[in-house]
Amino acid sequence: MQKLGYGLNLILLFFFSVNLIGCKREKNDLSTVFSVTKPWRATVEVPRQYVAQIRAIQHIEIRAFEKGYLQEIFVDEGQTVKSGDKMFQIMPFLMNAEYKKAKAEYDISKIEYVNTEKLAKQKVVSRNEVALAKAKYEKFAAELNLAKTHLDFTTIKAPFSGVLDRFRVRLGSLIEEGELLTTLSDINKLWVYFNLSESDYLTYMGNKEKKEGGTVQLILANGTPYKYPGQIDTIEADFDNETGNIPFRATFPNPELLLRHGETGNILLTKTLDNALVIPQKATFEVVDKRYVYVVNDQGIVDSREIVVDKEVPHLFVIKSGISDQDTILIEGIGKLTKGEVVQTKLLAKAEVLQGLELKAE
Question: pTM score, two decimals?
Answer without folding.
Answer: 0.65
